[in-house]
Amino acid sequence: MRRRTGFASFLGQRWAVLFFLVELVFFSFLGGGFFSLNGMQIVLFYSTTLALLATAETFVIVTGGIDFSVGFVMGFASVVSAKLAAAFDRMGLPPELSLTFAVLATLAMGLLPGFVNGMLVARLKVPPFLATFSVQGITYGVSLILTKGSAATNVPNLANVIGNGYFMYWVRGRGLSFFLRPDVPRGTNVVEIIPTMVVVTILFVAIAAFLLKRTRFGQHTYAIGGSMDAAVRAGINTKKHLVLIYVISSFLATLSGIIYMLEYVTGKSDAGSSFMLDAVVAVVIGGASLFGGAGTVWKTILGVLILSVLEMGLKMMGVQTFDKFIAVGIILVFAVLIDQFFPELIHKED
Amino acid sequence: MGYLLEVRDITKRFGGLVAVNNVSMGVHAGEVVGLLGDNGAGKSTLIKVISGVYQAEEGKIFFQDKEVHIASPMDALAMGIETIYQDLALAENLNTPANIFLGREKMKKALGFLNVLDHPYMQAESRKVLEKLDILIPSLRNRIRALSGGQRQAVAISRSIYWDAKFLIMDEPTAALGVAEQKKVIGTINLLKSHGIGIIVISHQMHDVFQVADRLIIMRRGEKVAERITRDTTADEIVSLIVGAETVAR
Amino acid sequence: MRHTSVAVVNGKPRSPAVSILARHWALLFLALTVTVFSFTGRNFFALNNFQSIIHLATTGLLLASAETFVIIAGGIDISIGFLLGLSAVSSASTMQLLFAAGWSAPASIVAGISVGMAASIACGLAAGILIARFRVPPFIATLGTQGIAIGISYHICGGFPIGYLPPGLTEIGNGYLLYIHPPSGAWSFFQRPDGIGASQIKDLVRIIPFSFVLLAVLLAVLWHLLKNTRFGQHTYAIGGSMDAAVRAGIDTKKHLILVYVLSAALAGFAGIVDVFQSGNGNYTTFGAQLELFAIAAVIIGGASLFGGKGRIIASVVGVILLKVLENGLNLSGVEPFYRYIAVGLILIVAVVIDQLFPDLF
Q1: How many domains does chain B have?
Q2: Within this chain, do residues B48 and B9 fall inside the same structural domain, yes or no?
Q3: How far is C138 from chain A (nearest CA, A)?
Q4: CA–CA separation, B13 and C94 (whole Å)
């Protein structure tokens, strides 16, 4: 393998970043507004769901597996949290408590699909593809039963305030306020800074990244992905580890569903189905190999941003949503080809 | 010299690394040559040059007294040079006849016009070649997966024989086999010898090599460091040659 | 040649009875569900219903056959659901345009079929080349072509089914070989007997849908292909050990491309069938998950995702089992949502059985 040195190599390693920048410039000229505070915030807001799902998928893909259930676990979570919040609300609890209980209960329930996935893969040696597909079907079925096919509504409006609120607000003359929109006379200019949900997402993504990169748990995850055999012989409890991985994936997907519920104030069973493809694509663009052992959370996030900007940009250009699929399909193949032909470029530090 | 297969001054490089350096050797028909050496000595590379997986930068290959160019594994196979690698390259999910005939299946006509696989023929032919090699496989219809290591080795060898191999390269034929099966394989190799086939055997099992090889060629760091007639040498001498205590030019 | 296998659990061979039971568990389960639903379902155990199940399963059976080949070869094709939609939409729109432009019905239909097949085969070819020559993992390659198929489909139809198709499609798509009207004794081949009006249709007994015949012929051809030809043998070999196949001199690259083209062709054909059965060009929606049901059927039928195993007839059983479940649950008054759960559970059972009795299939 010839070592490519110099500028070309430097560029090649960062092709994703370059692509992203080119994308931003391209769309800024054509549609406008990406480089504005508003524009960037829209992109970030839009990316929250995908970011969490793709992060979830990163953990699983690093171990050499795949998780097909994240999309429908997200839908399930949105439905369950919406229904619980509505139920608590009907019981007379104040909205803060309804939402809090609903969120906590959903997070707890969301661990279950992951646990089942993990047990199937680790103990029964079911191939991840099949295991997660089965669980996905079951989860989807359960959420459909809960909603009888429609969307779950009647969520207290506080959800909307939280879901669509911003971390900071700045009013000329009044200074900064956090989380709650300041009460100002109509017409006053309020600068909104960073949606709250984005902050939450970044927080969890950062924790996930830390977990994967700097802890022993993360190290072991890469080990399992690199060689299950070697990991077992090194004394790692791979069965337990794999279960945990799928639980983490499920947890992040659940979180994603809760955020969805807060943003849209409803729960939909199939909320996540269109994100499945994108989640895997984002991870692959980020340089992970589907065989496991490589990839990081932040690189996946770059993949997420690339896709989000693409989608928003195409939308702004008036391109129909479904043409996006063509573009994503092409990018995906392109990403894999680059990985094939220049493996040393992507996995520079591995 | 009358070699069946001869290589002269073969050099094979990978970038800056010289894997095989100016190696010459030959094998007569009906002779077994043991190719020995430690890991990284260049044995595998040399046989891959002979079997067409690699092309040497320098040197010539002669087969049946004619110079030949082996540009791909298909070329080698077409000449009758068959290689049995350590992993055997068998399809576990198929049975014995299917493996022996893989890629060269026999067809027959059914209903007058349809071309179908001729399973009875392939089964009968497989049985014949296995008997010729004195190998016992109770049920030919079982998938290879169900066979023991020695039996699989036997199937791989049978495949080569059936297609009229004139020259056989065997990479670690007795590794991962039990004692009884090792004996069986040794017996088979001797049988092949008596059929006039030239054989190169790579093996770390000194005991087996001494049982079956007529000559021994030792490589170290890409070079041929010694050649011995088996009955004129001892295991100790060979080991020290492999490891490098002595170097004796040919 | 039948490969004989013995059930071996933990190294000990089990009795032949257990082997047979495990090997045909899907069939047994099918029999069980049919029995149960006969009691719980309204009009389940009726000629009409059974024929209807198989008639509606036509596209599913075609997709499952497509997936069978790909999975045996050790790959996977997740684009077939959307290739079906692409073919349906492109063929329908061609038929509509040409017919409106003055072409005769048969000509526009034939032209439409050609376009639909060409579109799906092109995608299959692309996937095959990516997988065979560029070594892109099959999952990704077909994910990519799936995306392209979706995009093109929506471009063509804009999210609406395509109508105004030439007449005669549904008569062919939903026709039966024999119609009998017991009350009056009238009967005829291929179409409703003359003189039987709309009000008398409910007494009409229909025997053997055209789709049966189509399926019988096509499935027989595919079965023959897998079992009796070199192509089939090599497909199993490639799935079992790519290495062995390459060293045996098989042109694995060409073969893999052919497999994905075949898969796409069958998916495209399924799309055409859909147009004939529904009378419209329908795009494939997201929730349909057609490819996943096809894969599930193939796995239930005993194939392994690692390749090297699988049979057409087994996949057929898998599809029928799933369709019977759907139909039976429906007629028993159970909400369709439970279907997803049922499929998920059955799939898990299938895989666990495969784990316990690895040498059985």
Answers
A1: 2
A2: yes
A3: 11
A4: 59
